[in-house]
Amino acid sequence: MKGKLHLFASTVASLALAQVSNAAVITFTDLNTNLTAANTVSGSGGGTTASTGAASSGTFKYSVIYSGFDFDGDTLADSFSFDVTVAGRSGTTGVTNSGPGTSSVTTLGTTVENVVIQTGTQPDSWVVGNIRFTTGETLVFSVDNIQTTNTDGAFTLNAIFDGFTGGRLGRYNNNGQPAGVFGLGTGLNGYTGDSNGVLAGGPQPILYISSSYPTNDGSANFGVHNVDFGFTVNAVAIPEPSSTLLLGAGALGLLLRRRRA
Q: Rounded distance, CA 254 to CA 9, Å?
């Protein structure tokens, strides 16, 4: 009897594991300041990416839709959407830029600042507060409002944000030298010059980029553009009623076995 129960439990476990399909990893690159649907961000995997941006109470919000990819295996196109918010803070302390892996930011500032888009001879950039991005100011990037739409009713679609991987420091005119630290804490990556910066330790749920340019220098004419991040999308099979009953029976059988033991 014990052998039969063990075999039954193994069958139930195998059936439960079969409920999840293969995951698809979608990476997004070069989110920029463009507020129109064209050329705001690029997504991998062969799907179509469309986005719109708008200013809202001193922040910028970019609404992104990724469509045209078959996540649930029925040959029809599915989609998911999300928002990226760009916010500003001042009062950040302990910003030390000593290069990759050895930089630090002690405390994120609590004063909310407006984010502006600066234009010039170089790529347009997000900047905190005014035309100069100086020490004590931090740009904060976050993702929320994740929604999914799929075409096969036998599956549910889950889009999981994997985190931000980095962004680019760049001057929006010919003055100044970009200098910033990516992240919050110690052991961070600091960059000087027009740089594609990445986060130490891998993707992070929130991207903090703090200026390490002297506050008394009026030529800090640089900002942040082209931010990268990624998602993992899972199509999860909805158990049929018979499968649900089988799982319940399996659990009951295991419980009875434990009591007899």
A: 7
Amino acid residing at 180: G
CA–CA distance, 203 with 141 (Å, rounded to integer): 13
Are the CB atoms for 61 and 87 separated by under 8 Å?
no
Rg (CA), the chain: 24
Which residue type sits at 132? R
In contact, 166 and 228? CB cutoff 8 Å: yes
**Residue 189: what are its φ and ψ, rounded to 5°?**
-100, 125
Can you give the pTM of this predicted structure?
0.84
DSSP state letters, 138-158: EEEEEEEEEEEE-S-TTEEEE
5's tokens = 């129960």
159-186 per-position pLDDT tens digit: 999 999 999 999 887 777 899 999 999 9
Task: Record the tokens describing residue 111, joined without a space.
Answer: 């004063």
